Structure formats: C-alpha cells, structure tokens
TrEMBL record:
PANTHER family: ALPHA-KETOGLUTARATE-DEPENDENT DIOXYGENASE ALKB HOMOLOG 2, DNA OXIDATIVE DEMETHYLASE ALKBH2
Name of protein: Fe2OG dioxygenase domain-containing protein
Coiled-coil residues: none
Entry keywords, A to Z: Heme, Iron, Metal-binding
Positions with biased composition (Polar residues): 144-153
Region named Disordered: 1-33, 132-155
Gene Ontology MF terms in the entry: broad specificity oxidative DNA demethylase activity; cytosine C-5 DNA demethylase activity; ferrous iron binding
Binding site for 2-oxoglutarate: N185, Y187, H197, H258
Residue ranges occupied by any Cytochrome b5 heme-binding domain in the UniProt entry: 280-356
InterPro entries (UniProt xref): AlkB-like (IPR027450), AlkB-like_sf (IPR037151), ALKBH2 (IPR032852), Cyt_B5-like_heme/steroid-bd (IPR001199), Cyt_B5-like_heme/steroid_sf (IPR036400), Oxoglu/Fe-dep_dioxygenase_dom (IPR005123)
Species per Swiss-Prot/TrEMBL record: Aspergillus pseudoviridinutans
PROSITE patterns listed in its UniProt record: CYTOCHROME_B5_2 (PS50255), FE2OG_OXY (PS51471)
Residues where substrate binds: D200
C-alpha cells in the first residue's frame, strides 16, 4: 500500500459533487409520430411533489368590470418550480413561429419574439388508444371514428405525460374546469415578449378558462380592458414569479387583453435565467464548426455561441486551450474549471448568438409560461 504524507492527514476530505439536474438522465420517454423526438417523462423528484399542489390558496380578483381572476402566489413551490423549469426547457421541442404578411406590394417575413410549442386538440376530436399500435390516434369526439387527415392544417399532437400531469393538477385546483389544449411559450431573454391579445379564438368556445403558469425569471403580466364605451377599468399589473399562476375565467377573455412586455436589464431569478442581451442570431453546430481556426475561432458554452478570436491572448489557460475546442461545443471542458455565472463578464463583448434548439441543444435562459386552454 502506498504511504501517505503527513500533510495528507490534515487535508479536508472533499465531498462528492452533487449531480446536477441536467446530468440526471430521464428514466422513460413518451413517443408519438407527431413529436419531433421522444419527450421525457417527469423525474420522480418533480412528479412526487405535484400531488401536493397548489402550494397556496388563490386570491380572487374581481374588482374591475368583467374581470374574474384567481391568483396563486405560488401554485408550485420554488424548489420544484425551478427544477420543472430546467426540465421543460431541456426536453420540449421549442421553435420560433415564422409567417409572412403582405401590405400592398411589400412582403414582410415575421419571426415571433418568443419560442413556442403546442399540444392538444379542440373538443371536436380526441386522442384514443390505437388497437394496432402503441401510439394514440385522433378520432371524432362523438362518433369515435378516425378523422380525415385534411381536417387540421397542422397535425395535432397529444399532450405528453410531463405536461398532462400538470394539466390534471390545474384542473383539480380550478373548480373542475376542463383543459384540452396546452401552449408553452419560452421567453429566452428580456427582449422576448408577447403583445396585447386575448385568448378568445372561436374554437375555445364562449367564456373560455385560461390558466397561465409561469416558471423561471420574474416577468410582468399586464392586462387592460378592451376599449368599450361607458366602461372605465384600471389596468392590471402582476409580477409573476417562479411557480405563480393566474387563472382567467368568465367574461375575462371577451373583455380584457393581456401581454408579457419586453423587459430591459437583469431578470430576477436564478443566475442561469439572468439576461441583459438583445435578440441574437441562432446558429447550428454545423455553422459554428466552420469557425475553427486561430484567426476565426468560435465556441459554444452552455448553448451560447461566442467569437473568442480576439480573446485568445487574454485567456488565462493560454491560446492552445481555446484552439483545441475551436468550432465545437466546449461546455464540458468549460465546466471543469468554471461556473456558468462567469459568462456574464463576457457576453456583451464576445457572444454572437445562441445555438439552435434541438433535442439536445435548446435555447437557454428566461421565463417559461404555460397556457392551458379549455
């Protein structure tokens, strides 16, 4: 047996590092042909905490004309909400919606300032187990016969179990309201937003009930009454924190508009959600790999793309360390020596974009909201 030095007996025994949530692989996945990739089921650390929801009794807000709100502060307690935020941000297939508008001879391409993903289907159809496969199929809600493929412009996707568990808990807490549609918006920075609108689409029916569950950094949730002659109503402002939920009921959607505005400066919350960045270009790993020389050197750290060409001489570990990971995802190597909080010093000067979202590489920081629509 090798002999130990005297000094070694006085050194503190280092404790094994606690595995990060991101390092814990999911135990099971949900599959469906409409999913871009299998969607992970909730880990026990989250799933076991959900039966205890809601965390608080809601406050009823009905002090304005046509306004009927339930405000949970919070609906999900912060430790669970934080873990749930990281899980959903990592596992759901987010994308930015793009569309074209025409104004006379001018055509403009619009990209929505937020990431989105949608699940569920309207009341005329439902997902039911298939007799031939393990995947649920879409049938008419009355006749239970398969619907024609031409009924929907975009193929509906069943709500995955990781969101359906949340749907059930929200239903149980909101006076038996039934929800069949789930829209998840991911606000990656303070520049991501959604303008004033109401969720009063025809397929939602009259007086729909909308439950908005917020995760991640604190963001303002604004409401204002639609212009109506003879009605005076003050605007409503709520700072939704991690795990908070607002339920909009009754005549609210028919008469009120709501928004999540842009927000400059630091977003409160976990360091990984802090951002002062403006909207940045989105690059694929293939794009980054083209910048792989000492004269044009890009790297990826924690889903953020950095041009470190001019930083090589400043790097404490020397230029060769950076050149070894040129054009690559350097996250693992970076985390061997640093915490991601140190990136705040360099974002303004070195960050050139974010990594495109895929199964393994999703957008990073921000505020996540879930809208369950009945």
């Amino acid at each position: 047996m090798a002999k130990r030095t005297v000094e070694s007996f006085y050194k503190p025994i280092s404790k094994p590092k606690k595995p990060r949530i991101e390092d814990t692989p999911p135990s099971s996945y949900s599959h469906h042909p409409s999913y871009r990739f299998p969607i992970a089921d909730l880990p026990p650390s989250i799933a076991n905490a959900l039966p205890n929801l809601p965390a608080t009794t809601p406050r009823s807000i009905t002090n304005q004309p046509h306004l009927d709100l339930l405000y949970y502060r919070p609906f999900i307690p912060p430790p669970t909400a934080r873990e749930l935020f990281h899980f959903l941000r990592r596992e759901l297939p987010f994308y930015r919606v793009q569309y074209t508008i025409c104004r006379g001879p001018t055509t403009t391409q619009i990209t929505t300032p937020r990431f989105t993903t949608v699940f569920g289907v309207d009341d005329t159809s439902l997902f039911t187990p298939s007799p031939n496969t393990s995947d649920p199929i879409l049938v008419d809600s009355k006749s239970h016969t398969p619907i024609p493929s031409t009924k929907y412009k975009s193929t509906p996707r069943p709500i995955p179990p990781c969101l359906d568990i949340l749907r059930q808990r929200v239903e149980a807490a909101t006076d038996g309201a039934r929800y069949n549609f789930c829209l998840v918006n991911y606000y990656a920075s303070g520049d991501d937003s959604i303008t004033y609108h109401s969720d009063d689409e025809r397929f939602l029916g009259p007086n729909p009930c909308i439950a908005s569950l917020s995760l991640g950094a604190k963001r303002d949730f604004l409401m204002k009454h639609k212009p109506t002659e003879g009605v005076e109503a003050a605007p409503v402002k709520m700072a939704l924190a991690d795990g908070d939920m607002v339920v909009m009921r009754g005549e609210t959607q028919a008469n009120w508009l709501h928004s999540v505005p842009k927000r400059r400066g630091n977003l409160s919350g976990d360091d990984r959600e802090l951002s002062m960045a403006t909207s940045l270009p989105i690059y694929s790993l293939q794009d980054v790999s083209r910048h792989n020389t000492s004269k044009d050197l890009w790297i990826v750290i924690d889903k953020e793309v950095y041009d470190v060409t001019q930083f090589q001489a400043e790097h404490p570990g020397g230029e060769r360390i950076l050149q070894k990971v040129a054009g690559k995802d350097a996250t693992d190597k970076f985390l061997e020596y640093h915490d991601t909080s140190i990136l705040a010093r360099y974002r303004d000067r070195l960050q050139v974009g974010v990594l495109e979202e895929t199964k393994a590489q999703e957008p990073k920081k921000g505020f996540l909201s879930r809208f369950f629509r009945s």
